[in-house]
Specification:
Blueprint (H helix, E strand, L loop, with lengths): L5 E4 L3 H10 L3 E4 L11 E4 L2 E4 L10 H11 L4 E4 L2 E5 L2 E4 L11 H16 L2 H10 L10 H14 L24 H26 L20 H9 L10 E4 L5 H6 L9 E2 L4 E5 L4 E4 L4 E3 L2 E4 L3 H8 L5 H8 L3 E11 L9 E3 L8 E3 L1 H4 L9 E9 L9 H14 L9 E14 L5 H14 L2 E3 L1 H4 L6 H21 L6
Parallel strand pairs: 1-2, 1-13, 2-9, 6-15, 13-19
Antiparallel strand pairs: 3-4, 5-8, 6-7, 10-11, 11-12, 14-17, 14-18, 15-16, 16-17
Length: 492
């Protein structure tokens, strides 16, 4: 039998979207026994857990239309309850806009530091914080800043008579931020850097933040202005944002969203098909069972280093070296099902301090259908990498997560554990180091010249959520169809 002209490797959200948009022109192959990629779900002892946490967030009309197509009535939308646990208290996320409830000295330090970041010399603030043995963020006093603001207002014709002080200009000659640590100081100042942003990001990424390019924050982190920060310090204010409302399937977990594509795919799907070799010379792929498939255009959604590895010597040394220089963070998820209903009303909780996990996703609140009667499920996320190895694993990691959940008040000492297991995500978060963009460009350009289209978070080696993955799949389908047209194929 002849294969369709386009072969899609990987049936995660990007691959499924590409297959949907390509119709009968594509063969979709997946190494697992079900579609979904990292959005797969598992049923364990009456609980439903996602392989890794995923929810539906988008304001794009096209993506919202896809959600309707894929799920119909099987969806519920709700306001997100995201929180941070630090200083033994819970505050709303984002931390920088929700200081209410923290110790007064912490609130003062964060607000004064934010003023300095906007009206003073953020780089000097960073140097002062580094110079203290404890990393304490030393900031000017409140009276110093009131005086400076009043002086600035007077010099701009907005004297203190009407109380409208004009902002101070940025200090001339201060260089822009060159890495993640510096942009944190520039955006939020030394107080927020010290109490949340620096420890949380170090815990997540596991490498010095000086090695990460500041572009990693682009479009991903809320940046409230000073009035929002002040309001969030004085009252328990729910801050809106791009992900303040989310959707989730009522039944079936994230798997239901992924399975929603299946009735709409016109091309063939091959599961349990692990691609072990890609030949750009012959335009063929070889599977673990020894079988092969041909293609005119290949769409790859698998991690770039894995694709280059499967190309073997077909890829030139420059491409192999670029792939070897790509870095990422892995994720071990500890899924816990407890014998108590409704342990919390929260959805996400961020932990910048000494817990083994950096975040908890409250699976049981995404949908009540994820819980058996009388039970409640959560997922603890633990990042690791070659530079940040896991301190615990297996049963010891599960025990540590349960102990930390008790210590931070998620569960009490007598709450029974009904289910406990781990899943592994070897490729979770892409690290945007300073060489990232150039290395990806080298690989992408070579692949494009050999009829390979890269798509999605791992194919393009960039951050994509599920909604962006759907759009990435559509864009990949358009590029693949354009390639077919240039090869004189008739497209469906």
């Amino acid at each position: 039998m002849s294969s369709p002209p386009i072969l899609i490797v990987g049936a995660g959200p990007t691959g499924l979207s590409a297959a949907y948009h390509l119709g009968a022109d594509a063969l979709l192959v997946e190494r697992e026994r079900t579609v979904g990629g990292q959005c797969r779900s598992m049923a364990v002892k009456g609980f439903i857990f996602d392989q890794a946490p995923h929810v539906m967030t988008s304001n794009d009309p096209y993506v919202l239309g896809l959600y309707d197509l894929l799920l119909g009535d099987n969806v519920q939308w709700q306001d997100r309850e995201a929180w941070v646990y630090s200083k033994s208290v819970y505050t709303r996320y984002p931390f920088q806009a929700s200081l209410y409830g923290l110790p007064p000295e912490v609130v003062k330090e964060c607000l004064l530091g934010a003023i300095e970041a906007r009206y003073g010399d953020w780089r000097s603030a960073q140097e002062r914080a580094r110079a203290t043995s404890s990393g304490e963020a030393v900031v000017p006093s409140l009276t110093d800043w009131v005086s400076k603001l009043a002086q600035a207002g007077a010099s701009n014709g907005n004297g203190s008579a009407n109380g409208n002080a004009a902002p101070l200009a940025k200090t001339p000659g201060v260089e822009p931020p060159h890495n993640l640590e510096e942009i944190i100081y520039q955006l939020w100042g030394p107080g927020i850097a010290r109490h949340f942003s620096i420890p949380y990001n170090r815990k997540l990424w596991g490498i010095p933040l000086e090695e990460i390019d500041p572009s990693i924050l682009a479009g991903r982190v809320p940046q409230p202005d000073l009035s929002d920060m002040l309001e969030g310090a004085l009252s328990d204010t729910h801050q809106s944002g791009p992900s303040s409302r989310f959707g989730y399937p009522q039944h079936g977990g994230s798997q239901a969203l992924m399975n929603g594509f299946l009735p709409h795919l016109r091309g063939p799907i091959r599961l349990n098909a692990d691609v072990t070799r890609v030949s750009v010379r012959d335009h063929t792929v070889t599977f673990a069972d020894g079988s092969t498939a041909t293609y005119d255009t290949l769409i790859s959604t698998i991690p770039l280093p894995e694709l280059v590895r499967r190309l073997s010597d077909d890829a030139p040394l420059e491409v192999r070296n670029a792939a070897a220089g790509l870095h990422h963070v892995s994720l071990r998820c500890v899924h816990l099902g407890f014998g108590r209903p409704k342990l919390t009303y929260k959805h996400w909780i961020y932990y910048p301090e000494d817990t083994v996990f950096h975040r908890i996703f409250v699976q049981g609140n995404a949908s009540a259908d994820c819980n058996p009667p009388g039970g409640f499920g959560i997922t603890c996320e633990v990042s690791y990498s070659d530079r940040k190895p896991l301190m615990f694993d297996g049963a010891s990691l599960i025990a540590r997560c349960i102990n930390d959940c008790r210590r931070v008040g998620i569960i009490g000492d007598l709450v029974p554990v009904w289910a406990a297991f781990t899943t592994d995500q070897p490729y979770a978060y892409v690290i945007h180091d300073h060489e990232h963009a150039e290395r990806v460009r080298v690989i992408r350009d070579w692949m494009a010249a050999h009829d390979i289209v890269l798509a999605g978070r791992y194919g393009e080696w960039s951050h994509h959520d599920a909604a962006q993955a759907f759009l990435a799949g559509r864009a990949a389908a358009d590029r693949a169809h354009a390639t077919l047209a240039s090869h004189d194929y008739r497209v469906a």
